[in-house]
From TrEMBL:
Involved in the regulation of capsular polysaccharide biosynthesis. Autophosphorylation of CpsD attenuates its activity and reduces the level of encapsulation. May be part of a complex that directs the coordinated polymerization and export to the cell surface of the capsular polysaccharide. GO terms for molecular function: ATP binding; identical protein binding; non-membrane spanning protein tyrosine kinase activity. Its EC number is 2.7.10.2. One of its GO terms (cellular component) is plasma membrane. This is Tyrosine-protein kinase CpsD. Pathway: Capsule biogenesis; capsule polysaccharide biosynthesis. It comes from Enterococcus rivorum.
């Protein structure tokens, strides 16, 4: 019998924090432009909770939400980034923090408190809540009364709370949280996002009266294309 084992499949991957690694790169500048556009969207109405989602998988939701969180924190806002993608979480790996407790623990376990799950990440003004252990029922947890209460509590504590979500078209999680959040950003990735799927995403978000404040165009051809923002 061979003693060689297949390496355990990595469940999730870290995403690139370009806004931390190279603040003067064109991509970081694009994220700051996105920040400015979101700030403009905030002028008319309160925008404290922001969902980041996209139509399908692998379009750059986690990359965009993490980098947007960093540029807002750099601007002096008290920011919390929440890994609400309990199916394919990335935040623990990206920021190299523990995932033994996180959002799933908070929503399913009465004994877990907010203080136990909020973690600093070594960036001023930025904290995260990781996904926590994978629950069997992410949609039910996100749709629970406890989640509503959590959002209320977080709005009191932070200037901006960003939720990294799964794709809209495959599961209902993003729809659920978008219906409770002040704003939603849709990520579109060049050569990956499909038109039909994008239209379906738009319809699904409209159905729950989500406030879609803009689209992030995540270009793939060259770095200077990445992170364009088109507000509405
Ligand atoms: N503009 C880009 N150019 C090259 N690679 C990119 C770009 N945007 C994202 N990626 C890479 O593509 C992969 C998917 O990105 P990311 O995890 O941010 O997407 P996602 O929408 O959160 O995916 P999922 O649906 O799995 O949650 C990652 O490996 C990321 O580093
Ligand atoms: Mg993701």
């Amino acid at each position: 019998m061979s003693k060689l084992r297949q390496p355990k499949r990595q469940e999730t991957k870290a995403v690139s924090l370009i806004t931390m690694a190279d603040k003067s790169s064109p991509v970081s500048e694009q994220y700051r432009t996105i920040r400015t556009n979101i700030q403009y969207a905030m002028v008319d109405r309160e925008l404290k909770t922001l969902v980041v989602t996209s139509s399908g998988p692998g379009e750059g939701k986690s990359t965009s939400s993490a980098n947007i969180a960093i540029v807002f924190a750099n601007a002096g806002q008290k920011v919390l980034l929440v890994d609400a993608d309990m199916r394919k979480p990335t935040i623990a790996k990206t920021f190299a923090v523990s995932n033994t407790r996180g959002l799933s623990s908070l929503l399913s376990n009465r004994n877990t408190s907010l203080e136990q799950v909020v973690q600093p990440v070594g960036i001023d003004n930025l904290s995260v809540i990781t996904s926590g252990p994978k629950p069997p029922n992410p949609s039910e947890l996100l749709g629970s009364v406890k989640m509503n209460q959590l959002i209320k509590d977080l709005k009191r504590e932070y200037d901006l709370v960003i939720f990294d979500m799964p794709p809209v078209v495959t599961v209902t999680d993003a729809q659920i949280v978008a219906s409770k959040a002040d704003g939603t950003m849709l990520v579109v990735r060049e050569n990956v996002s499909k038109k039909d799927s994008m239209l379906k995403a738009k319809t699904l978000l409209q159905m729950v009266n989500a406030n879609v404040i803009g689209v992030i165009y995540n270009g793939a051809k060259n770095a200077s294309d990445q992170g364009y923002y088109y507000g509405n």
